[in-house]
Specification:
single chain, about 425 residues, alpha/beta, OB fold (Dihydrolipoamide Acetyltransferase, E2P), Rossmann fold, 5 domains, five-stranded mixed barrel, five-stranded parallel β-sheet, 12 helices, 13 strands, elongated
Length: about 425
């Protein structure tokens, strides 16, 4: 790579940079621009950009004499750019810059005509101090809290017995060993899907987010642990990154934050569904203690057996007491008592019916006697007769109404008679 800008154009450069058929001719497949023209135009466009302020994380520093070359990376994206310092701005930084430092630079974009590469020429470098980092983290924390990412009602419960546990941790780290050791000590059958990633530096956020997305898509993974041991605040900055925090908040699978750094709590702890103070605590939290659960089951089984035995004894005693009662010991006594009552009722009913029949018979005889006394037959039986007109059959009550022929009804039989004489009744 050429370390210096391209030299000034020679006096005849304007003529040599023109398109082959003249400066005014339009571009086409038949009339292309020479590569030197395209490269120069890109340089001209970038020159109009002027100086810019940008921020990033240093991933590489190299010195070649008094010239310093940096690689500046955006920690939240796969974006990096070469930075060149000819002015001594990097050397003037106190404390000296190191890999992973967060810096703000004022630079001019520079296009290298010869090889078509882009870099930033540094004019000024400022390290982002601890106070500024803390202020930024506090602003980010307030923003995420206002959006509800810390709300308790959005926290997902951890599964009691996860089928498989996702673990995102550093490569061959103590944090990974602590989580696996403590989890398997409590539940030897626990299964893990481990993703070893960078847990500090410029690649940490990208790799952790990628591992989180992969495990979140796995239907067998029921909880995800993000674990890292202790470290300085600068080392733990990736776990306060906005991109990572939002990725954790959007995850469907419950997430446990196990960043072992108590004095300064990373923002990930507030967003995660559960926070463990250390990876060791996370290993104990995500799985139940098999021995403790077995003891609990044994105690519950004993209590259940005792309660069942007590209930059976109580019910047996109650059944024996019920069977000892006379009504159950000799159940026919209940029928005998009821039979006697039924017999008494039947006797009373029979006596009432007989009494009622007797009274009704007497009343019937009285009615019969009255009817007989009022009957015309009884009158005839006393010697009276009923005389009727022979032609009309009407009862005669007046001798003047009698015709020649009359009928006479006696107590026994009837007579047909002829009237020979009418006798007037004497007045009394």
């Amino acid at each position: 790579m050429n370390d210096a800008p391209s030299s000034a154009a020679e006096p005849n450069a304007a003529e040599t940079d023109r398109p082959a058929t003249g400066p005014g001719a339009p571009m086409s497949a038949e009339n292309p621009w020479p590569l030197r023209v395209v490269s120069k135009k890109i340089g001209d466009w970038l020159a109009r950009l002027g100086e810019v302020w940008t921020e990033g994380q240093i991933t590489e520093i190299s010195h070649r004499g008094r010239t310093v070359y940096l690689t500046l990376r955006d920690p939240a994206a796969e974006v990096s750019m070469r930075v060149v310092d000819f002015t001594g701005a990097v050397a003037a930084c106190d404390p000296p810059l190191r890999d992973g430092a967060q810096v703000v630079v004022r630079a001019q974009a520079q296009w290298w005509d010869k090889n078509g590469s882009l870099s930033l020429h540094v004019r000024e470098v400022r390290q982002v101090g601890l106070g500024e980092l803390l202020a930024r983290l506090e602003r980010l924390k307030k923003l995420l809290a206002a959006e509800g990412l810390f709300a308790a009602d959005r926290k997902k419960p951890l599964p009691f017995l996860p089928y498989r546990i996702g673990l995102i941790t550093g490569r061959a780290s103590d944090a990974m060993r602590d989580v696996l050791k403590n989890a398997k000590a409590r539940l030897p059958s626990a299964e893990f899907e481990v993703r070893e990633v960078a847990v500090q530096g410029p690649k940490a956020v990208t790799e952790v987010c990628a591992a989180l997305a992969e495990l979140d898509r796995d239907p067998d993974v029921e909880v995800i642990v993000i674990a890292r041991g202790g470290g300085s605040m600068e080392d733990l900055l990736p776990f306060s990154d906005e991109t990572l925090c939002r990725a954790v908040a959007e995850a469907v699978t419950p997430v446990v934050s196990a960043i072992g750094h108590e004095p300064d709590t990373p923002i990930l702890d507030y967003v995660a569904d559960w926070r463990a103070s250390t990876p060791t605590e996370a290993g104990k939290k995500v799985v139940p203690d098999l021995a403790e659960e077995q003891r609990g089951l044994n105690i519950s089984r004993t209590r259940l057996r005792q309660a069942l035995h007590s209930m059976l004894t109580r019910e047996s005693d109650a059944l024996a007491a019920a069977r000892a009662r006379p009504v159950l010991a000799r159940p026919e006594t209940m029928l005998e008592a009821r039979a006697e009552a039924v017999a008494n009722l039947a006797h009373r009913m029979r006596a009432r019916v007989d009494s009622r029949l007797e009274r009704s018979t007497d009343e019937l005889e009285h009615l019969r006697a009255r009817l007989r006394s009022l009957s015309p037959q009884s009158t005839l039986d006393r010697g009276y007769a009923i005389v009727t007109d022979a032609e009309s059959g009407a009862v005669l009550r007046d001798a003047s109404a009698a015709g020649d022929r009359i009928g006479v009804r006696l107590a026994a039989g009837s007579l047909a008679a002829s009237v020979t004489e009418k006798i007037e009744q004497e007045e009394r």
